[in-house]
Design a protein that fits this description.
The protein has 365 residues and is α/β, with parallel strands linked by helices. It has helices at residues 30-44, 68-81, 101-110, 124-129, 136-148, 167-179, 201-206, 210-226, 245-251, 278-283, 299-306, 320-335, 350-354, 356-364, and strands spanning 5-11, 13-14, 26-27, 52-60, 83-94, 114-120, 154-160, 184-189, 230-233, 236-238, 256-259, 264-267, 270-273, 290-293, 313-314, 339-342, 345-348.
């Protein structure tokens, strides 16, 4: 394998479930967390020794809830089993309320070098409507503590199209975010997931309509780029050189290993998923892995994933006949202002990103 793989560890614990979230998570229990860390270590040991890895990502859930010694056990296992390359990017998703001085010290000492804060908004009213337990001031203080502690690669999440959000309130959040000591912003349009508390007519009636959401998205893109955060993916912005190396693997069709209940992988020539079952994961000698695709990285998949990136897709990654067909399909989309089609590259425009699913389906059909 020419490009190092990524390691994703899904931590299935949360203090409370946000009303918009459908990720797999369970209430935190210390004994369950200890058994979970041991199961992760056991599963890391089942992968090929010496596998080159240059990114580790603890997602969830709320990984920052875990006591640092448990995070340390898992990182130690990864270092022992894999060839964790020098300068590897090691990310921890962080709830601002968990970022105490002691925790930040411990994370830094473990070698974690990238923090991704679930901030979501810089306005208390919006945070309350989203069911977040932290205030804007608490999130800001947590980010500033992390920077003072020496973390130089900090990301914050921002949600747009949320209940009651306006162009004015978004501008206020953007002003706060871009003044923080951060180098990356993941900005998501709120989607209503079936079965969540937000899956109700009352919530939908408080959301901006399609045109309103599009206007907020374009305002966000322009506002972030004006402050030096370049859009490199539909929902991700970074100062130059601080793109998420781990997440780029997903969109650039690079192998990654997922460990933990509800984790996904693309490794060894197949895609597979672990069932969202914490007890099953804890008690199995090795996690159950259900194949979801036994022939990944097809040209169609490379189109679907690659067009999420601002740089788009390149001629060199496709068979000549397939590329010629892509250019043919792209012509009417280019005339509509949705893509830029060059002989050696196809990429979405800012307007194309707004309707990316439709555009990508037309190109990859």
């Amino acid at each position: 394998m020419s490009t190092p793989a990524g390691l994703y560890v899904h931590v299935p614990f949360c203090p409370v479930r946000c009303p918009y979230c459908d990720f797999y998570a369970n209430p935190y229990r210390r004994e369950k967390a200890e058994a979970y860390a041991a199961a992760v270590v056991r599963n890391i040991a089942a992968y090929p020794a010496g596998l080159p890895v240059d990114t580790v990502y603890f997602g969830g859930g709320t990984p920052s809830m875990l006591p640092p010694p448990l995070l340390g056990q898992m990182l130690h296992a990864a270092r022992q089993r894999f060839s964790l390359l020098s300068g590897a990017e090691i990310t921890l998703e962080v709830n601002p309320l968990t970022a105490t001085d002691a925790a930040l010290h411990a994370w830094r000492d473990l070698g974690i070098n990238r923090l991704s804060f679930g901030m979501q908004s810089a306005l208390d009213a919006e945070l309350q409507r989203l069911g977040r337990r932290h205030t804007a001031a608490q999130a800001i203080a947590a980010v500033e503590r992390a920077a003072a502690m020496g973390f130089s690669n900090i990301s914050c999440d921002l949600m747009i199209g949320t209940p009651g959000q306006t162009g004015e309130s978004l501008a206020q959040s953007l002003s706060v975010y871009t003044a923080l000591p951060i180098v990356h912003i993941s900005a998501y349009l709120l989607s209503i997931e079936p079965g969540t508390p937000f899956d109700s007519d009352a919530v939908r009636s408080a959301l901006p309509d399609e045109d309103g959401a599009a206007a907020l998205y374009l305002q966000m893109v322009q506002g972030l780029e004006d402050q030096g955060f370049c859009q490199y993916e539909i929902s991700n912005f970074a100062r130059p050189g601080f793109e998420s190396r781990h997440n780029l693997k997903y969109w650039q069709c690079v192998d990654y290993v997922g460990i933990g209940p509800a984790a996904h992988s693309c490794f060894g020539g197949r895609r597979y998923a672990v069932p969202p079952d914490l007890d099953g994961f804890l008690h199995a000698p090795r996690q159950q892995e259900v194949t979801t695709d036994d022939a990944p990285y097809t040209p169609e998949e490379r189109v679907m994933l690659g067009l999420r990136l601002a740089e788009g897709i390149r001629q060199q990654d496709f068979p000549p006949a397939y590329w010629s067909e892509l250019l043919r399909r792209a012509k009417p989309l280019e005339q509509a202002g949705l893509v830029l089609a060059e002989p050696e590259r196809i990429r979405l425009t800012r307007q194309g990103f707004l309707v990316s699913n439709s555009v990508i389906c037309q190109l990859a059909e």
